[in-house]
C-alpha cells in the first residue's frame, strides 16, 4: 500500500542508453500497475506531463522520457535529429524496461514518434493517444513537395550552418525565462509557466539561464519517409487510438483534412478553447477525455 509520502513525492530520475546516448526519464513509481508512457513534444521536456502524471500515478506505472537533445537527455554529437533515431530511442526504452504492452500518451513531435513506433510495433502498444501528433497538414506538405530536392537539401545545409554558429539564448534570471514561456503559450497559468520554466532551464557558469534543449532540434530534416509510407504505418496501428486537437491551434484537424481515414480504429476529439498544448490549456477536460478512453 502506498504511504502518504509516496503519494505526494515527485518522480524518480533514471537513465537508459540508446545508440551510445545517455537518455533521461522520470519514473512515477507504482511498478505493479499497468505501464503508461508519456512522450513530450519538440523543445519541451518530460516534466511538462507532471499535472497529467499526478492524477494518474495511483492507477498506472508512469514513465516519461526526455527525448534526445531535450531536457536532461544527452545531445547528439552531430546535431542530427531524425525520426528513425527518435523511434529507436522509444523502442529501446520499451524493450529495456519491459513495458510492452504499453499505453502511450504523446504530444506533437512525441505524438508523431509514437504513431510511427506503434505502426512499426503494433503488438507492443495497448492504447494510444496522440495530441496534435500527425505532423504538418496535407496543404503544407503539398507546398513543400513543389520544391525540388536540391532546394530542400540546400536549405537544410544553410539551416544547420546557421544553428552551428548560434549561441543559446541567455536569460538574466529565471523570471526573464518565465516571461518568455508565458509569451509562447497565452493559455498557461502563471503556476504552469513557472513550473515548466524551472524544469526547462539550466544555469550557465556566468549565472544566466538557457533552455535545456539543443538548438539543432529546430532544423527539420530535408528528407523523410514518403507520405504514403507514413500513412501505411498509421494503417498498421491495431490498438484503439485517440487523436486530440485544439480548436485554437495552428495544427490541422485530421477529421477535416482526411488523415483520420488512414487509421483503422482512431477517434478524433476536438477540444474547444485549447491551442497546441491541449493537456495544459484544458487540463480538466483533457483528463476527462483521457480517463474515458483509457
The tally of structural domains comes to: 1
The biggest sheet amounts to: 8 strands, mixed
**Quaternary structure type:** single chain
Strand segment tally: 10
Order of helices and strands: HEEEHEHEHEHHHHEEHEHEHH
Please tell me about this protein's structure:
The protein has 294 residues and is of the alpha/beta class. It has one domain: Rossmann fold (3-Layer(aba) Sandwich). The chain is built from 12 helices and 10 strands. It has helices at residues 4-8, 50-56, 83-96, 109-120, 138-145, 149-164, 174-184, 190-200, 227-235, 254-257, 278-281, 283-293, and strands spanning 12-18, 21-27, 35-39, 61-65, 102-107, 125-131, 201-203, 209-211, 241-246, 266-271. The strands form 2 sheets. Strands 1-2-4-3-5-6-9-10 form an 8-stranded mixed sheet, with helices on both faces. α3 packs across α4 and α7 packs across α8 (190-200). It starts with a helix and ends with a helix. Residues 1-5 have low confidence and may be disordered.
